[in-house]
Amino acid sequence: MIFWAGKSSDDVHVVVERYPSMPLAARKLDVQSVPGRSGDLIFPQDAYENYVQQYEVYISAERIRLPRAMREVAQWLCAPKGYQRLEDSYDLETFRNAYFVGPLDVESIMHRFGRATIEFSCQPQRWLRSGETESRLSNGQSLLNPTAFTAKPLITVTGTGAGTLTVGDVTVTINSMPRGVIVLDSDTQNAYYGALNLNSTISAPEFPTLPAGESAVRWTGGITSVEIIPRWWTL
What's the 3-state SS for 134-186? Predict the structure, then answer.
């Protein structure tokens, strides 16, 4: 079963015929060939390519005939804009962000069934569902990253005034907390609260990340509590 943009394939009478392939995202590399030297020089980037996830499906249209059934499938696939959440019942521990481009070529069988291959373009990360759970930490507590890939967490800091937050080896100085709460998004490199931009209230060489292994979380000053959504991911 496929779950696309919050809607199940069962809702549009689409059935996955067989266990889908599980492609692995390719690493982004700069490769240079040097005249007179055997082999290539590689300059790896800390990034990965999108990949295509295919699902071989059939569409049941015994009651409404295939043309009408395909209009429902088209709305399911094409109405969502941009990247959407993609899940399936074959990997219950992760989800992905993907988009659908098409086209979709459907083989009609007596106007009552259709066969096709649906292709989604997926971002390389397989996000762990466990990484969506917010943890309220004690001062000095450690978080254990269960993967080999560095996570970029969403951190909510609550307090009465200025203080410092240290995650692993990275320290963020919070110069003021005018609303009593500040959110640090390590993915977008922004500090905010609601619609209020708070980048000017912090000082940091970089935003905190959670590399493989344990990372201790400590704070000082007016900070009273820290909550982290870790955003664990793998390939």
Answer: CEEECCCCEEEECCCCCECCEEEEEEEEEEEEEECCEEEEECCCCCCEEEEEC
Contacts of 148 (CB under 8 A, 6+ apart): 212, 234
Burial class (CB in 10 A: 0-12, 13-18, 19+), 8: middle
**Per-residue pLDDT tens digits for 38-60:** 888 888 788 999 999 999 998 88
List C-alpha distances in Å: 196 to 72, 179, 188, 200, 201: 40, 10, 15, 11, 11
Whole-model pTM: value is 0.89
- Tokens 């820290």, residue located: 226
For the record, the structure tokens of 164 come out as 């410092």
- What is the DSSP secondary structure assignment for residue 200, as one 8-state letter? G
Tens of pLDDT along 125-172? 999 999 999 999 999 999 999 999 999 999 999 999 999 999 999 999
Pick left, alpha or beta for residue 129 (phi over 0 → left; psi -120 to 50 → alpha; otherwise beta). alpha
State the chain's mean pLDDT as an integer.
Answer: 93
Q: Which residues have CB under 8 Å from 88's CB, separation 6+? A: 1, 2, 3, 16, 20, 55
- Which amino acid does the sequence have at 204? A
First CA to last CA across the chain, in angstroms? Answer: 21
Can you tell me whether residue 7 is helix, strand or coil?
A: strand
